[in-house]
Design brief:
The structure holds two protein chains of two kinds. Helices cover about 40% and strands about 10% of the residues of chain A. Chain A contains 16 helices and eleven strands. Chain A is α/β, with parallel strands linked by helices. An eleven-stranded mixed β-sheet of chain A has the order 1-3-2-4-6-5-10-11-9-7-8, with helices on both faces. In chain B, helix 1 crosses helix 2. The longest helix of chain B has 18 residues. Chain B starts with a helix and ends in a 9-residue tail after the last strand. Chains A and B meet through helix 10, helix 11, helix 12 and helix 13 of A and helix 1 and helix 2 of B.
């Protein structure tokens, strides 16, 4: 069987069950396409045929007992801000160049226990700070739909790897849209689960009250499968919930829209590209024709999300990134005479431009004299944004909005203006601020043939419902073919 | 736009050594972003209304038990400088 790299998770599992191919054959097929495409795309930062083939052979050796494993032989790329024992973890930063992971993140460990095959470490914006993957210290990643364009960010490498059929799924992290926006720009499904659904243990912290781990894949079913495997309480992360994890793939059997109410917020859609707006409106119409009730909701305070996010996330980052000081791990500058100079030089030379900007922004917002006006105010407005969603979700099961105001933009197009770049995440930021689950699904192509994403925002811990609605949408639209 | 002194003060608090070019770059960038954020000033908020964190069910403390990390070597392998199993740093105290 050829082109095994192009199969989605569901087809792979069915093929293994019928013994149509082995894990080694699938792994070889993925490695072959990685070998052909990665030099141009720069989607993966670490590739190891040796590790991959060793693991593939182990899985092949498990034979019939493997049938029960939920991700048996499924190749998955992992964003390079997750620790995976034996693999590097640079978080896209020079300051972590050469860092080898001493242990494995809980989310990845659960995937491995379910039989997954880690295929490589994916490129990302430095410390997950960015919306285009251009902030990676290891060079930008490119969009498989158009090599002159960005794949989105910060999980750009994860999205590009899946879109280029290097693997059927990838893990990303999402602090303000870093899974959903690249999923949108690369024509994929991407899920940011509720805050507390998936353990953050073993990921490089950016903003701890906002970070979540989630999947990117070609289909809704595939994301549901990855999510159900890695969700749930972890004693290593006190913010994970003990709430029962539903069998998400099982719940996808129910996709009737007749009892579903969806909310749209017309006032929120100003400034959206016309092609994106058209595709969004067409999706809403199609969902309505299939039985969903569409209502209008008001989310007046979400318009402040950009300011709130860029105070809270950098404040948390300025604290989280204090650990990179050239002492315990990572880059150490030369020519220092005392500890203070060691810290300043190592951090000054090791961090990139955007990371330093955000550290300073956070330091400023938390400093004496500015704390009340900036950080404290932001946390209070954050609560109001959460309140807006609570009110909206009393009336509807999910709020629908485009994932990104535009399709994939060209490299360099927004990198000179921080606010222009930050505005790419205008529809995804509030979801993290409110701790809600959000999913991006493909909903068409623009006039240049670039994918457009539709975002659905659900109630806290109601990923099951959200995935059902996403699945209904996928049944209407069909699965978007990878380029 | 922030002053040069303001940027240097923030950089000092954040333990970041900046070049002269970087200082003027961040004067502009930080100033621009902070200007945008002044939009929050006019919003009516109440005190003590920070975000409600969702997983309320896990807000209890675990037992405070020491667990030894099994692989000390794996942790130390990433250190930029080691001596006798410890992290090597410049002296903090003057030695006579």
């Amino acid at each position: 069987m050829s082109n095994l790299n192009q199969l989605d998770i569901q087809s792979l599992l069915a093929g293994y069950e019928k013994k149509q191919f082995t894990v080694s054959e699938v792994a070889e097929s993925c490695l072959k396409i990685i070998g052909e495409k990665n030099a141009k795309l720069n989607a993966l930062l670490e590739i190891s045929s040796e590790k991959v083939m060793k693991r593939a052979k182990e899985l092949d050796g498990q034979g019939s007992s493997s049938g029960k494993l939920k991700l048996y032989g499924v190749p998955i790329a992992i964003k390079d801000n997750f620790l995976v024992k034996g693999w590097q973890c640079t978080a896209g930063s020079k300051i972590l160049e050469g860092y080898r992971s001493p242990y494995t993140a809980t989310s990845v460990k659960r995937l491995e226990e379910a039989g997954a095959l880690i295929i490589g470490k994916a490129n990302c914006d430095e410390f997950a700070m960015g919306s285009s993957n251009e902030n990676s210290a290891y060079g930008p990643c490119r969009n498989p739909w158009d090599l002159e364009r960005v794949p989105g960010g910060s999980s750009g490498g994860s999205a590009a790897a899946v879109a280029a059929s290097m693997c059927p799924a990838a893990l990303g992290t999402d602090t303000g849209g870093s899974i959903r926006q690249p999923a949108s720009l690369c024509g994929l499904v991407g899920v940011k689960p509720s805050y507390g659904r998936v353990s953050r243990y073993g990921i490089v912290s950016y903003a701890s009250s906002l970070d979540q781990v989630g999947p990117l894949s070609q289909t809704v079913w595939d994301s549901a499968r990855v999510l159900e495997v890695m969700s749930g309480f972890d004693p290593h992360d006190a913010t994970t919930s003990k709430m029962a994890v539903p069998d998400f793939t099982q719940s996808l059997r129910e996709t009737s829209l007749s009892q579903v109410t969806l909310g749209i917020a017309p006032a929120w859609l100003e400034g959206v590209d016309s092609d994106v707006k058209k595709a969004f409106d067409a999706s809403i119409d199609a969902l309505k024709k299939s039985g969903a009730k569409i209502i209008e909701v008001d989310l007046p305070r979400t318009r402040y999300s950009l300011s709130v996010y860029y105070l809270i996330a950098p404040s948390e980052a300025s604290s989280n990134l204090a650990r990179f000081d050239g002492v315990h791990y990572g880059f150490r500058a030369k020519d220092f005479t005392d500890s203070e100079t060691l810290y300043r030089l190592s951090r000054g030379q090791g961090f990139g431009k955007e990371v330093k900007l955000r550290i300073m922004l956070g330091t400023y917002a938390l400093s004496a004299g500015y704390y009340d006006a900036f950080y404290l105010k932001a946390t209070q407005v954050r609560r109001l944004i959460q309140q807006d969603f609570e009110d909206a979700h009393k009336k509807c099961d999910a709020v629908l909005v485009p994932t990104s105001p535009s399709t994939a933009f060209k490299l360099g197009e927004k990198s000179d203006d921080p606010l222009k770049m930050y505005l790419s995440d205008i529809f995804t930021l509030p979801v993290n601020l409110a701790g809600l689950p959000g999913i991006s699904v493909p909903c068409g192509l623009d006039q240049q043939g670039l994918p457009i994403g539709l975002q659905m925002i659900g109630r806290p811990f109601d990923e099951a419902k959200l995935l059902q609605i996403a699945k209904s949408h996928e049944q209407i639209h069909g699965v978007l073919k990878r380029p | 736009m922030l002053t040069k002194e303001e940027v240097l003060k923030i950089a000092r608090l954040a333990r970041l050594e900046l070049t002269d070019d970087e200082v003027s770059f961040y004067q502009n960038r930080l100033g621009r972003v902070l200007d945008y954020m002044t939009e929050l000033k006019g919003i009516e908020t109440r005190e003590g209304t920070g975000v409600r964190h969702v997983p309320l069910d896990s807000e209890k403390f675990r037992n405070d038990e020491v667990v030894t990390f099994p692989d000390k070597e794996a942790l130390l392998q990433n250190a930029p400088a080691l001596e006798e199993g410890g992290f090597l740093l410049p002296a903090i105290m003057e030695t006579e």
